[in-house]
Amino acid sequence: MPSANRDPGFYQRLSALALPIILQNLISTSLGFADTFMVGLLSSDALSAVAAANALLFLLQTAIFGLTSGLSVLVSQYWGRQDLRAISRCLGVVLYAGGSVVGLCVLLLLLFPHGAMALVTNDSLLIQIGVGYLRITAGGYLCSLLSAVYVSLERSTGNPKLGTIILSISVALNTALNYCLIFGHFGFPQLGVRGAALGTLCAQCTGLLIHGIYAWRTHQPF
Q1: d(CA 173, CA 205)
Q2: Number of Cα atoms under 13 Å in the Cβ half of residue 186
Q3: Of 14, 79, 109, 191, whose CB is crowded by the most CB atoms within 10 A?
Q4: In the chain, which ranges are E strands?
Q5: Are the CB atoms for 38 and 181 separated by under 8 Å?
Q6: Is the entire prediction scored with pTM above 0.85?
């Protein structure tokens, strides 16, 4: 049988790589549920406006996912033969291409938020609410791009646990800040939908900051 040809530690190594990735997907899903639940407690209009804004931001998420997926495939191959120079080249190309595409989209969303919202809804109230959310959240996707690229790089070089740890911290911070800023708890201002956007932005920046500190402390070779 095929399993008889496996090395003794094959499944252990496979589990060490796969389980953190599965956990990352579960955490990401729970984050979306928590955000939707808390915004939904405000009003149905707030929930609809955020959903419309997120439909636009989903395009950025898809672009980031595509770039990091391609990076993972290439880096895994080069890491297998310890070609650090090729990994650095791949990283540079992805950062350049991703930064250009995501940066342009973010710029358009920041400059023309009303027009962007009008593409997904014709309700003036939803547009007004969604614009405030979109302006704050969009800028954080540059941080998300850098974080996603770094997580993909670490995952492809045998360190998937780092992404799980940082994502867990970001999700916990995002949920806590949303609770405080949306509803005005613990002395924080009650900002409603804008509070949800600020919570997401702070979590994205914090994740990138942790990545940067880790890379600096470990002296990454690429």
Answers
A1: 11
A2: 7
A3: 109
A4: none
A5: no
A6: no
